[in-house]
């Protein structure tokens, strides 16, 4: 006999399916499904009504249906581009095979497909850029935060600088980062594009602060009792940090990491727009410059996708936090 | 016989914004090996300060502490501490908490298997073998304190220091833990210094009760020998004349000789009922 256990949030649906709904379950159904759906529907309606009244130089502001249409066409373009790419590779293979048959000593030259990146390629680039920037920031912020948390001297020395740089907008950093990257990253055979590095460093500069601050606070607030345990056990500095300080600070650190990732994603779009890194930011900018009657609809698709990805990234961090942090009560929604 | 632990002229002054505050003055105490000594006194009298100085967590400003011919200058596992609020690492299981201590103290002398056996042995000693893989969050306050005791015992300390170990527990749990502690003390013959607020607990467990005067400049007021045969049984002792007399003496010291004068909470109107807990 197999017993199926349902997660609690599924209870109302199961009850609905079996025709046994209690008052409480109706409440839960309303809260989980009906109110959110109504909220979205009301938003779409208002959007449609407002859009009809806004005329821009690029035509009418797109309503939900036009945006949906553009989402479809972006998907079609992506598939068409992939088909072209496959065809290109097939042609190349055939050409190389036939030429090798005639001239066996010939060294074949493989060329990669050079079509413009589609919307979906740009999402991929954006994700890679944001993750690189976020990882770089974490690699700097976590050790530095531990150091600042452990040493009140370091805290006193660095706190003014942190407070000074924390509120700086990515747009202010970007020109400086661009110039520095161009000056320092000089190579004939670039592994990654300069625009990628510029975007990544800008993201790092802007998103390292929450992790830094939260790690430092987490480390400072290790309970005195646990520090005493460590002293009685005569743990050396390394074990003290590894066994007592780090696990204690982990919940706070994760809160910081989650905030950082949120900021990283917001900053990225602006950075890509100006650095011309082939990601979502550049997509928005290109569409804006392009100025066709479809542009606004396509930008709106990007807006929704940006929101959706930001939401998913946050959920991902939340899941990671739930899995790794011992103090489950520290995990907020 | 030479004392295992000796406190001579221990004094403690703290610098405060209002000038120097003398918490302790001229504390002299000798403790023999295997003795169970309680420190009792009103809150704020510096009992914890004495214990922390013996533990090495605080440095006395006057005098010093000698343990087994060595002056105490820093904390160490030979003076293991059982803290009032258990102080277990919340991310480790009971087993891992004890293991951390055992690995630190015996990593050079015990093999992996011996370490595991020793951890398990100590958890069995405090009757925690059944829940040793649970996290502190998943066990009761009394059980956490048992694990705290196991962790301290597992270091094989020369002196076991207990800072109000049962203060936060309910009466029934406290009685269970007192019985366990007596059992362990009988079995291992550990030297124990325990801080307590509880007169019955002090008389039941101790060989000697050290009564402290009120601060500032607190010091030892009286020392009472509890000449009750061991093993002691709490029910039989309830109307034992020696037990009753000892209890009486401690109470007299605390409530007649060292009566703590605390200002009564002010009540400005009849409908504000403020109940202030007297610590």
TrEMBL record, chain A:
GO terms for biological process: transmembrane transport. It comes from the Bacteria. The keyword Transmembrane helix applies. Its main location: membrane. Pfam families: BPD_transp_1. The chain crosses the membrane at residues 29-50, 127-150, 171-187, 199-223, 244-275, 295-313. Keywords: Cell membrane, Membrane, Transmembrane, Transmembrane helix, Transport. It is found in: Cell membrane. The keyword Cell membrane applies. One of its GO terms (cellular component) is plasma membrane. It is a multi-pass membrane protein. PROSITE patterns: ABC_TM1 (PS50928). Gene3D superfamilies: MetI-like (1.10.3720.10). Residues 123-317 form the ABC transmembrane type-1 domain. Belongs to the binding-protein-dependent transport system permease family. This is ABC transporter permease. It comes from Alcanivorax profundi. The lineage of its organism: Bacteria, Pseudomonadati, Pseudomonadota, Gammaproteobacteria, Oceanospirillales.
From TrEMBL, chain B:
It comes from the Bacteria. It is a peripheral membrane protein. The keyword ATP-binding applies. It is found in: Cell membrane. One of its GO terms (molecular function) is ATP binding. GO terms for cellular component: plasma membrane. The keyword Nucleotide-binding applies. Residues 5-239 form the ABC transporter domain. Keywords: ATP-binding, Cell membrane, Membrane, Nucleotide-binding, Transport. Belongs to the ABC transporter superfamily. This is ABC transporter ATP-binding protein.
């Amino acid at each position: 006999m197999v017993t199926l256990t349902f997660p609690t949030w599924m209870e109302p649906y199961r009850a609905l399916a079996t025709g046994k709904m209690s008052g409480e379950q109706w409440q839960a159904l309303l809260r989980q499904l009906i109110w959110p759906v109504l909220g979205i529907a009301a938003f779409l309606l208002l959007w449609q009504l407002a859009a009809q009244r806004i005329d821009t130089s690029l035509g009418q502001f797109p309503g939900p249906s036009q945006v949906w249409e553009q989402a479809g066409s972006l998907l079609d373009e992506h598939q068409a581009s992939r088909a072209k790419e496959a065809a290109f590779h097939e042609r190349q293979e055939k050409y190389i095979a036939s030429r090798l048959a005639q001239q066996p000593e010939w060294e074949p030259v493989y060329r990669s497909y050079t079509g413009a990146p589609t919307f979906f390629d740009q999402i991929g680039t954006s994700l890679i850029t944001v993750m690189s920037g976020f990882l770089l920031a974490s690699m700097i912020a976590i050790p530095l935060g531990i150091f600042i948390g452990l040493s009140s001297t370091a805290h006193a020395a660095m706190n003014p600088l942190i407070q000074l740089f924390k509120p700086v907008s990515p747009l202010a950093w970007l020109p400086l980062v661009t110039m520095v990257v161009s000056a320092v990253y000089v190579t004939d055979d670039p592994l990654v594009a300069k625009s990628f590095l510029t975007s990544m460093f800008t993201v790092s500069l802007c998103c390292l602060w929450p992790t830094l601050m939260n790690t430092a606070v987490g480390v400072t607030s290790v309970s005195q009792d646990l520090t005493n345990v460590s002293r009685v056990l005569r743990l050396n500095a390394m074990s003290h940090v590894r066994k007592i300080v780090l696990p204690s600070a982990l919940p706070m650190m994760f809160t910081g990491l989650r905030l950082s990732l949120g900021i990283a994603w917001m900053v990225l779009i602006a950075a890509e727009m100006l650095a011309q890194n082939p990601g979502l930011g550049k997509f928005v900018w290109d569409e804006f410059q392009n100025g066709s009657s479809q542009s606004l609809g396509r930008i709106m698709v990007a807006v929704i996708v940006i929101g959706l990805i930001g939401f998913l990234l946050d959920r991902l961090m939340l899941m990671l936090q739930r899995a790794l942090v011992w103090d489950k009560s520290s995990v907020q929604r | 016989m030479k004392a295992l632990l000796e406190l001579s002229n221990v004094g403690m002054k703290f610098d405060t914004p209002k000038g120097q505050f003398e918490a302790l003055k001229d504390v002299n105490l000798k403790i023999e090996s295997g003795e169970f000594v309680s420190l009792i006194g009103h809150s704020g009298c510096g009992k914890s300060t004495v214990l922390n100085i013996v533990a090495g967590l605080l440095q006395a400003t006057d005098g010093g502490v000698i343990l087994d011919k060595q002056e105490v200058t820093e904390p160490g596992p030979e003076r293991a501490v059982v803290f009032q609020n258990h102080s277990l690492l919340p991310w480790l299981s009971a087993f891992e908490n004890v293991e951390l201590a055992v690995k630190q103290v015996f990593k050079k002398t015990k093999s992996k298997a011996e370490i595991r056996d020793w951890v398990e042995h100590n958890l069995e000693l405090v009757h925690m073998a059944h829940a040793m893989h649970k996290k502190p969050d998943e066990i009761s306050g009394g059980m956490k304190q048992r694990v705290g005791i196991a962790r301290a015992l597992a270091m094989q300390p020369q002196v076991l220091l207990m800072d109000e170990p049962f203060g936060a527990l309910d009466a029934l749990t406290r009685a269970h833990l007192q019985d366990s502690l007596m059992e362990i003390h009988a079995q291992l013959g550990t030297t124990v210094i325990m801080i307590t607020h509880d007169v019955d607990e002090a008389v039941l467990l101790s060989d000697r009760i050290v009564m402290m005067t009120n601060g500032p400049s607190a010091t030892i007021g009286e020392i009472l020998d509890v000449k009750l045969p061991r093993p002691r049984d709490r029910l039989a002792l309830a109307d034992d004349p020696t037990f009753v007399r000892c209890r009486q003496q401690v109470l007299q010291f605390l409530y007649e000789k060292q009566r703590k004068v605390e200002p009564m909470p002010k009540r400005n109107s009849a409908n504000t009922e403020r109940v202030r807990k007297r610590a």
